[in-house]
Design a protein that fits this description.
Blueprint: E1 17-21, H1 27-39, E2 55-59, H2 70-73, E3 75-79, E4 86-90, H3 91-97, H4 99-110, H5 115-121, E5 124-126, E6 140-141
Parallel strand pairs: 1-2, 1-6, 2-5
Antiparallel strand pairs: 3-4
Length: about 140
């Protein structure tokens, strides 16, 4: 009886390029679906200790939807490292100035907070408008 567990190797990973249109999609629900693709959970060969995921290109990030009153109430905080150096930015302002960062922050927060998560996050490309510069990779549309 040969009951060996299958463990994928780096050469076994088949990466694809997928395009997601964020127009009219709810931010959190879209981000969780993107994270599943980046981690590779949609593949039967998924392994939690390896980066099995595909590359994801998100277009129309400026047209992502927020439910409730999050546009006025949700605030992102960061610290400069100096005493009293807390800085805050509202989602409304961030959507106006850098709309791609709102989706990037949502996805980054759902990925593992380690080297593996940073490696997965590098496969995410977000663009505010409908155009992207990855046509050479022949991306396929992903229905989310």
């Amino acid at each position: 009886m040969d009951n060996k567990t299958y463990t994928p190797r780096a050469g076994d990973i088949d990466r694809k390029w997928l395009v997601v249109d964020a127009e009219g999609k709810v931010l959190g629900r879209l981000a969780s679906e993107i994270v599943n693709v980046l981690r590779g959970k949609h593949k039967p060969t998924y392994s939690p200790h390896m980066d099995m995921g595909d590359h994801v290109i998100v277009v129309n990030a400026d047209k992502v939807r927020l439910t409730g009153r999050k546009a006025e109430q949700k605030v992102y905080y960061r610290h400069t490292g100096y005493p009293g150096g807390i800085r805050s930015t509202s989602v409304k302002r961030l959507l106006a100035e850098h709309p791609e960062r709102v989706l990037q922050k949502a996805v980054r927060g759902m990925l593992p907070h380690n080297i593996l998560g940073r490696q997965m996050f590098r496969k995410l490309k977000v663009y505010a408008g409908p155009d992207h510069r990855h046509s050479a990779q022949q991306p396929q549309p992903l229905d989310i």
